[in-house]
Specification:
This protein is of the alpha/beta class. Helices cover 41% and strands 15% of the residues. The protein contains 22 helices and 18 strands. The protein has helices at residues 2-16, 40-43, 51-67, 186-189, 223-228, 247-260, 277-284, 311-329, 343-360, 367-385, 429-445, 452-457, 467-483, 492-496, 525-531, 534-542, 551-567, 577-588, 593-598, 602-619, 621-630, 635-650, and strands spanning 81-89, 92-97, 110-114, 119-127, 130-135, 147-154, 156-159, 166-168, 174-177, 197-200, 236-240, 264-269, 291-295, 334-340, 389-390, 399-406, 486-489, 509-510. The strands form three sheets. Strands 8, 9, 11, 12, 13, 14, 15, 16, 17 and 18 form a ten-stranded mixed β-sheet that branches. Strands 1-2-5-4-3-6 form a six-stranded antiparallel β-barrel. It has a two-stranded antiparallel sheet with strand order 7-10. Helix 16 (534-542) crosses helix 17.
Length: 651
């Protein structure tokens, strides 16, 4: 059935020459083109597709198969689209298509004029017949509009290399120019063409024909992330966890590490209310060298004080950040966009959902409409996710990587309070559903005590007043995970054990593609050499029963603690590549096992382990320098480093 759907879609697309509707965009690189031509047949066989991407491929093809037979006029938007304004929340305006107009159009990014030019805006998204617009004029928020017309041109930004070191508002206008001269910026100095360039705010997805295979690592300076979930230049990665677990710190430390390596870093404060970001970055780079900060505020109305978060400004701020990065990528630079965080996008989507429900009423709750709404949501996020990519030499050779920070509710419940597990009555029908309840009942019938920890393993929220809200948040996270190239999951349980960063090795992973002819790789040869057994040995140790005190089990636990000690680091202290490799080599070679065979205390051993690693780095400067330059751990270098580790152990 899948093969038939694919063949049918390709045949219809060939015969109709229908432009590919970008609002059905997918994570898969094979669908990152503005036109839906015959090359889709070859792209379907691309080894760059992950399993999640392939599922999105098939879903998109089913939609396209039904759309390909429609007249092109229903897909290509007219030059001007008349709208009737129906609601206004802050700067976000909801408008309705005229009754005689219909079509599956992509209007995101198009300019809008209100009331014959009295005000202006930009289309954030469309859920036909509703259009959601950000009012970007400088009038008072109390201004009310009645009509709007979508214009043929797109909203654009004018960008120059001088944007480096600046803080911009959501529309790309300077809020704070930290540096008057960019001569010290390696990124700006390396650009052969410093002329300004006008680029669309909501740019197109990276074309498959312009992309190269992922082959270069993007080091974060966080050893746990680089070892467990290596990120390749040109990939997007979700950082999932609460703020207390260090979600933002992962983004900030990565920004510092990459800026020092010469990467152009665009840090997007989507909500515009995070006043600690710029001071944190300035501690490591007073002039914000190679860094641009984009805030989800409007400079015209920014008074410097606290203001309510406007979801529309946050959505545009993320798009603006990607546009700035694309300017430098087109000139051959490596770039990184950090979106802090996606909660603003979710607020915007929830706002649009309320308007759709108000329009359709009870009919919206039908299975077909709910499935369509879910596909629309995925398409909305895909327009941001798909702007990443590592360009081939013909396209300029630059890269755009993206870290997307996402809040995750804590799964550790309050417990029953009496030391016993939950009963079947605790799992309500309206929250957990039939399948989950059947599984819970089966476990209870087998005498398994269902505790908070069991619920976490089942990826369901423990019973409680907020269980329903947590459930929907987790479902939303799962949807975004399926669109991304991987995820770093921060665990409350590991944090309670004193681990920092609390990266969950069982759920955190990187996806780089499948297929025998796929040579994509996100990590460096040196990292693969020292961290090859990391995930497996952590998993083996976690499966050992607490009362198993055999010699093999004791050694396995000691090795797991050695790995955790190598990964342990404090926020605000991003590591060099050489430090991470030596620390992981010390754990993988068994040099750290002795610490935990003699003394089981994790905290007591950390000081001695850090001293051992620092002494080794100081005693082998030439080997470490070669390692950091080549990113390879040769047998000679490995022998010298292991010998130094053992020698320093005896001192």
């Amino acid at each position: 059935q899948t093969a038939a759907a694919v063949a049918q879609a390709i045949t219809r697309a060939r015969s109709a020459s229908v432009p590919y509707p970008a609002h059905f965009g997918r994570r898969s690189p094979a669908l990152r083109s503005q036109v839906f031509p015959a090359q889709l047949a070859n792209a379907m066989h691309s080894a760059q597709l992950s399993r999640a991407g392939l599922r999105e491929h098939v879903r998109g093809l089913k939609m396209t198969a039904s759309m390909a037979s429609e007249p092109a006029a229903n897909i290509v938007a007219p030059e001007q689209v008349a709208l009737k304004v129906t609601a206004q929340r802050g700067r976000v305006i909801t408008a309705h298509l005229d009754e005689d107009m219909t079509g599956a159009w992509m209007l995101q990014g198009r300019r809008v004029l209100f009331d014959g030019g009295v005000g202006s805006g930009v289309v954030l998204w469309q859920r036909i017949p509703l259009i959601f617009i950000l009012r970007d004029d400088e009038g008072a928020d109390s201004v009310s509009y009645t009509s709007a017309v979508v214009q043929p041109e797109s909203a654009t930004l004018t960008i120059t290399p001088n944007v480096l070191g600046q803080v911009l508002d959501a529309l790309g206008r300077p809020i704070d120019s930290t540096v008057s001269s960019r001569a010290s910026s390696s990124a700006a100095a390396s650009l052969s063409d410093g002329a300004s360039q006008e680029r669309s705010v909501f740019g197109d997805a990276t074309l498959l024909a312009d992309m190269a295979t992922i082959s270069r690592p993007m080091h974060t300076g966080v050893t746990a992330v680089d070892a467990l979930t290596p990120i390749g230049k040109g990939q997007n990665m979700l950082i999932v966890g609460s703020e207390t677990l260090g979600r933002r710190k992962v983004g900030l430390d990565t920004a510092i590490t990459q800026a020092k390596e010469g990467t152009v870093v665009v840090y997007v404060d989507a909500s515009g209310d995070k006043d600690d970001i710029v001071p944190y970055l300035k501690k490591f780079s007073p002039e914000l060298q190679n860094i641009v900060v984009v805030r989800g505020v409007c400079s015209a109305s920014n008074t410097g004080g606290k203001s309510s978060v406007d979801p529309g400004l946050g959505v545009v701020a993320a798009a603006t950040g990607a546009t700035v990065a694309e300017y430098f990528r087109a000139k051959g630079q490596d770039t990184l966009v950090i979106i802090d965080d996606l909660d603003v996008h979710k607020k915007f989507w929830d706002m649009s959902e309320r308007d759709v429900v108000a329009l359709y009423g009870a009919a919206f709750d039908s299975p077909g409409n709910l499935a369509a709404a879910n596909s629309e949501m995925r398409a909305f996020y895909s327009t941001l996710f798909q702007r990443v990519g590592y360009l081939n030499n013909k396209a300029g050779g630059g890269s755009l990587s993206m870290l997307l920070l996402l809040d995750r509710p804590a799964l550790l419940g309050k417990g029953t309070g009496d030391g016993k597990g939950y009963t079947m009555q605790d799992f309500r029908d309206d929250v957990y559903g039939g399948k989950v309840r059947q599984r819970i009942q089966l476990m209870l019938d087998r005498g398994i005590v269902v505790t908070d920890e069991v619920c976490v393993k089942l990826s369901i929220p423990p019973p409680g007043e907020d269980a329903s809200e947590v459930k929907f948040k987790l479902r939303h996270i799962d949807e975004l995970i399926s669109l991304s190239d991987g995820q770093v999951i921060l665990s409350d349980k590991l944090a309670l054990q004193g681990l920092c960063p609390a990266v969950d090795s069982t759920t955190s992973l990187t996806r780089i593609g499948i297929g025998a002819d796929n040579f994509a790789v996100a990590s460096s040869p040196a990292m693969r050499a020292v961290a090859g057994r990391l995930r497996m040995e952590l998993a083996q140790a976690s499966d050992i029963p607490p009362d198993d005190m055999t010699s093999d089990s004791v050694r396995q636990r000691a090795r797991a603690k050695a790995w955790h000690a190598a990964l342990q680091q404090q926020w605000g202290a991003p590591r060099t590549f050489g430090y991470s490799i030596v620390a992981l080599l010390a754990a993988s070679s068994g040099c750290l096992d002795g610490f935990f065979l003699k003394n089981q205390s994790f905290a007591d051993n950390l000081v001695g382990i850090q001293e051992l690693i620092n002494k080794t780095l100081q005693s082998c400067p030439a080997e470490v320098a070669t390692l950091e330059k080549s990113l390879e751990l040769t047998s000679t270098t490995k022998t010298v480093l292991v010998a130094a580790l053992k020698s320093n152990l005896l001192k």
